[in-house]
Amino acid sequence: MTRTVWSVNDWDPLEEVILGSAAGLTPPPVDVSLRHFFEPPADAKDERIDAGTLQRVVDETEEDFALLTETLTSAGVRVRRPDATAVGRRYATPEWESVAMHALMPRDCLLVIGDRIIEAPMPMRARYFETAPFRRLLREYFDAGASWFSAPKPLLPDETYVYEPGASVVAEHEPLFDAANMLRCGTDIFFNVSNTGNRRGAAWLRRQLGSDFRVHEISICSDHVGTTLHILRPGLLLANSERLTADQIPAPLRSWKTIWVDTPENDGYAFDWPRASVWVGMNILALGPDTVVVPANQTRVIKQLENAGITAVPTSFRHGRTFGGGLHCCSLDVRRRGELETYL
């Protein structure tokens, strides 16, 4: 029987992927939750993005996604797309109000583990309903036999956002995490406790998954792990040379070979301030254990991968720093060919 949804790592051969959409991209208000996540400049509220610039970013991103779709399809991967987000869609709770940001990054709002798809309890208010454009696909996967869960919907009061010396974190009032906080390695899942995930979130995930999986709490970066550490395949890591040292690699992975990424190329950004650092350039998508898709202008990253025997497939990706996400963020592997294994 063919499994509609199955993925337990980031390197088994890719068969089906959800690719996000830039349609409806709307910069949200600079509230306490956005400041906590993006750490924007003090004058961020004064940013004025003209309609022409915003439309250019949307159009160029969709052009890049069309090329990426061709690349993936030619590799035998089925590509699915969400519904468009309505421009400027507002919503409110008794505590706060915000604007839906986009449907660009299924990796952030949806977590696939085995045959489960989990809607993440995201801490940023502008991302509260980010799974809505993906609901058509979620219904389809559910009807085909996948398990579909949603973590408890958080309240996100102002007290959620805590600033500690040298770091910002989210309070432990309720389970919180972005799905991109996870590093999946078969039966072992590494959960990054940070400003986008708390220990209560790790506890909720641990209980949800049960005894088949081990959820390890780590703290290797301020938010998502995809610009800090990747598992390319068992025994081989790709790591951020500015954020990590060898003794900061999670202990169970420390004996594996590590490719230490040199500072990536600066892609630039179209808005007043960037929503991601240059390290979004190492945010890659694996087609299999020996082949990864990489932004075409990341020549140093490509060279380092190829020197390690990894085939790097270049693709146009112009606005990762503009909207705050890379190739890994903007895609979600729904099905990979392989079985659940223990590698550690």
Automatic annotation (TrEMBL):
Domain of life of the native organism: Bacteria
Catalytic residues identified in the record: D178, H224, C329
InterPro entries: AmidinoTrfase (IPR033195)
GO biological process: creatine biosynthetic process
An annotated Gene Ontology molecular function: glycine amidinotransferase activity
Keywords, alphabetical: Transferase
Family: Belongs to the amidinotransferase family.
Protein name: Inosamine-phosphate amidinotransferase 1
